[in-house]
Design brief:
The protein has 310 residues and is α/β, with parallel strands linked by helices. The chain contains 14 helices and 11 strands. Helix 2 packs parallel to helix 3. The structure holds ligand TUI.
Length: 310
C-alpha cells in the first residue's frame, strides 16, 4: 500500500521533523498542501510542544504528526504528551522508541520510527511500529552510516510493514528511485527548507540555494553524534577541533546553540546549517504546493520516459 493511502493523505510524502524549524504552523501548512506535516519537538520544551500541537490542530483538518527527538532531555514527558493530545502520527529520531510504542498505539497513533539499520528496523517491527522510516546518510542533521540506496532495499526485505525512504530525495527521479527500492513513500526535509512557508531565517534558505553538490559535511563522528551540515566557518572550526582531539564536552559546548544561531538569527557562517546532500540541486524558493506537485509529476514523467525507452 502506498503511504498516502496508509496515512489518509494526498501525496506519499512525510515532512521531516526538523528541530527548531518545524513549528505547528509549518506542519499545518504541509498537511494542508497534501503531505503529512510534522511538528519537530526537538527544539521545543514541553509547554511549547503542547501549544504547537494545539495550534496545528486549529490550522488543519488533515492528519499531522509529531517527531520526538529521543536525545531530548524531556523526551519521556513529550512521549506522554503526544498520547494525551491524541496526535494521529508519531515519528521518532536519534534513538530507540521501543518503550513508548505500546502507549502510543493505545492512544490510537500510527508510529513510524526513523531507523538507520536493518537490526533496528526489525526490532521496531517486532515492537509494533506501523511503518519505519529508513534514513540514509545523505540526509541533513543527525545521520547514520548507510546510504539510502543501500539501506532501503535491505530494510524492505527484512520487515513486513511499509518502509518510507528518507535522505537524498528532492525531485521526481529520486522519488521514482525510492519506489523502485521498495519504499511506500518518502520523507522530505531539505527540499522543504526552501519553501515559501518554511519559517527558517532567509539567510538559511539563501545558504542552501547557494550550495553545490559537495557543500555538506558530517561533523561530530568522533563525539558519537554525526550531524550533516553545510560547510561554513562553524563546520571548519568544528572539524579543526575534532582533528585536534577535542573531547566530547568541548565539542558539545561548541555546538550548543549553533542550530538556533542559524535558524533564528540567520548566521549562516557561525551557525549550524543542517541540510542534506540534495542541497546542491535546489535553486528556487517555491510554495509547498508546487514542490509537492513538481515531485509527483516529475516522478510520473520520468516513469513514462523509462517505459518509452525500454
Ligand atoms: O534525528 C534525526 N535527525 C536529526 S535530530 C536533530 S537535533 C540534533 N541537534 C544537535 C545534535 C544532534 C541532534 C537533527 N537532525 N534523524 C533521524 C535519525 N535517527 N537519524 C539517525 C537516527 C538513529 C540513530 C540511532 C535512530 C536510532 C538509533 O538507534 C540507536 C539505538 O539506540 O539503537
Amino acid at each position: 500500500m502506498k503511504l498516502n493511502q496508509f496515512l489518509g493523505i494526498r501525496y506519499p510524502f512525510i515532512q521531516g521533523g526538523m528541530a527548531h524549524i518545524a513549528t505547528g504552523g509549518f506542519a499545518a501548512a504541509v498537511s494542508n498542501a497534501g503531505a503529512l506535516g510534522l511538528i519537530g519537538a526537538g527544539g521545543m520544551g514541553l509547554a511549547m510542544l503542547r501549544q504547537q500541537i494545539r495550534l496545528c490542530k486549529s490550522q488543519t483538518q488533515h492528519p499531522f504528526g509529531v517527531n520526538i527527538m529521543l536525545m531530548h532531555p524531556e523526551a519521556e514527558a513529550m512521549a506522554q504528551l503526544v498520547a494525551e493530545e491524541q496526535v494521529p502520527v508519531v515519528t521518532t529520531g536519534a534513538g530507540n522508541p521501543g518503550p513508548y510504542i505500546p502507549m502510543w498505539k493505545a492512544a490510537g497513533a500510527k508510529v513510524l520510527p526513523v531507523i538507520p539499520s536493518v537490526a533496528l528496523a526489525k526490532r521496531m517491527a517486532a515492537a509494533g511500529a506501523d511503518a519505519v522510516i529508513a534514513e540514509g546518510t545523505e540526509a541533513g542533521g543527525h545521520v547514520g552510516e548507510l546510504t539510502t540506496m543501500a539501506l532501503v532495499p535491505q530494510v524492505a526485505d527484512a520487515v513486513d510493514i511499509p518502509v518510507v525512504a528518507a535522505g537524498g530525495i528532492a525531485d521526481g527521479r529520486q522519488l521514482l528511485a525510492a519506489f523502485a527500492l521498495g519504499a511506500a513513500g518518502v520523507q522530505l526535509g531539505t527540499c522543504l527548507l526552501v519553501s515559501e512557508e518554511c519559517p527558517v531565517h532567509e539567510n538559511y534558505k539563501a545558504a542552501i540555494l547557494k550550495t553545490g553538490d559537495t557543500g555538506t559535511v558530517v561533523t561530530g563522528r568522533s563525539a558519537g553524534v554525526p550531524v550533516r551540515i553545510l560547510k561554513n566557518k562553524m563546520a571548519r572550526e568544528y572539524i579543526r577541533l575534532e582533528k585536534a582531539g577535542a573531547d566530547k564536552m568541548e565539542l558539545e559546548h561548541f555546538t550548543l546553540g549553533s542550530l538556533r544561531r542559524a535558524v533564528y538569527e540567520g548566521d549562516a557562517q557561525n551557525g549550524s546549517v543542517m541540510a542534506g546532500q540534495v542541497a546542491g540541486q535546489l535553486s528556487v524558493i517555491q510554495p509547498l504546493s508546487e514542490i509537492f506537485e513538481g515531485l509527483y509529476s516529475g516522478y510520473l514523467a520520468r516513469l513514462g520516459q523509462l517505459e518509452q525507452e525500454r
